[in-house]
Amino acid sequence: MKQKGKLFFFCGKMGAGKSTTSKVVAMENNAVRISEDEWLSEHYPNQIQTFDDYLKLSGVIKPFIKSLVQSILDSGANVVMDFPANTVKQRAWFISLCSEIGCGHELLFLDLTDEQCLAQIAKRRIEQPERAQFDTEAVFAHVTKFFERPGDEEYLNIVHVAGNASQSI
Questions:
Q1: For residue 61, what is the domain's CATH number?
Q2: Which of 79, 83, 86, 119 is 20 to 30 Å from the Cα of 67, by its Cα?
Q3: Which Pfam families does its entry note (predicted)?
Q4: Strand, coil or helix: 44
Q5: In whole angstroms, what separates CA 13 from the centre of its chain?
């Protein structure tokens, strides 16, 4: 029987370096990288103006993404998902994706302080001005209210990354 691929996904506050780290992890693990931001911007250009728009459209693409990811993992290839796993509910979706097909997973928890995240967001606003509308302290504060640290009761294979995640992986 062919071995299934492994799913890599990320938990970390806005600005923690999830997208940057996902690129490194994909390269190091010869994995297919799938980015939620890329899928949403390609399928729904200029349609995400609010956090509620994001939540709605993210929910719309998930069934398609799930099927695609499971097919890739079934083929034996590793997958890196640059999607947030910042709440218990989000992480449960990733775990169901794995348990349904019997593949392994690794959750990289990028554990940065609010100050570190805000500094990286400020830098990103300069480097990617098209994101400036959402890369603000106000959006960070709003989104961070929903953040839930991963816990032992979730039975996750966690790799804890403290400090500046984009430099420590």
A1: 3.40.50.300
A2: 86
A3: AAA_33
A4: coil
A5: 10
What percentage of the chain has pLDDT greater than the value 70?
96
Lookup: tokens for 69: 């990811």
The answer to whether position 65 is within a domain reads yes
Tokens of 33: 């990288």
Residue 53 is part of which domain span? 6-168
d(CA 117, CA 16) in angstroms, rounded, equals: 5
CA-based torsion, 56, 60, 62, 68: positive or negative: negative
From the number of C-beta atoms within 10 Å of its C-beta (0-12, 13-18, 19+), residue 52 rates as exposed
Burial class (CB in 10 A: 0-12, 13-18, 19+), 167: exposed
Q: Is it the case that residue 165 has pLDDT exceeding 70?
A: no
Cα–Cα distance between 133 and 125 in angstroms, integer?
9
Confidence of residue 128 (pLDDT cuts 50, 70, 90): confident
Cα separation of 99 and 109, whole Å? 20
